[in-house]
Amino acid sequence: MRKIFFLLIIAVLISGCAMIGDHARGGRTKIDYFAEQQLSFVNYSKNIYPAHDKNYPIDLYFEDKPQKPYEVIGEIIGFFTHDNDLRALLEARARQVGADAVIDIQTSLGTITNTGITQRSVSDSVGNIVGTMPVATTSSQKVVNIKAKVINYKQ
Question: pTM of the full predicted structure?
Answer without folding.
Answer: 0.67
